[in-house]
Amino acid sequence: MAPERPTKRVHRDSDAYARSLVAGFARVALTLIGGSIAVLGVVIAPLPGPMGLPVVVLGIMIMLRGSFKAKRQFIRFQHAHPRLVSPVRRLLRRDPEVLKIFWQQYLRVERTVLPRPWRFAARTRIQIRGLFRRRPKVV
């Protein structure tokens, strides 16, 4: 076995301290940026269109990346209210199914707000499913 070659790198305590200091500043910056984006989403939520919710989710994603305390509070809130947090958790995944989540939330809101005779999304869903069923090919 060949002897190990000496490296030119030297481990310094000051380098480790600088890295930890920069990492701390980055965490604080991510938390502040994410919090301000989430607040911006709440402010623009009353405007026409659903543009507030995606902005809030983006802000929460950034804030959860940078803050351990925010992660703990989010998990605590998730345990307390799983039905409220589950759509947000599904949007935080690596490859979120945005249209599927939007459709399920739309059905939930329609069921909550509209009386039964006025609901049209559930009937539309049954018709749409019929369009996408696989039919055997006729040879």
Q: What overall geometry do the principal axes of the alpha carbons give?
A: elongated
Secondary structural class? mainly alpha
Number of domain units: 2
The pLDDT mean sits at: 81
Ranges where pLDDT stays below 50 over 5 or more residues in a row are none
Q: Sheet bearing the most strands, described?
A: none
Number of helices: 6
- What is the helix fraction of residues, given as a range? 55-70%
Number of β-strand runs: 0
Radius of gyration: 24 Å
Cα distance spanning the termini: 69 Å
Percentage of residues in DSSP E strands:
under 5%
SSE string, helix = H, strand = E?
Answer: HHHHHH
Give a brief outline of the structure:
Helices cover 70% and strands 0% of the residues. It is mostly helical.
Give a verbal description of the structure.
- The chain has 139 residues and is mainly α.
- The chain has 2 domains: 64 residues; 37 residues, no CATH class.
- 70% of the residues lie in helices and 0% in strands.
- The chain is elongated and about 75 Å long.
- The mean pLDDT is 81.
Topology:
Elements: H1 13-44, H2 52-66, H3 68-80, H4 82-91, H5 98-113, H6 121-131
Key descriptive features of the protein:
2 domains; single chain; 139 residues; mainly alpha
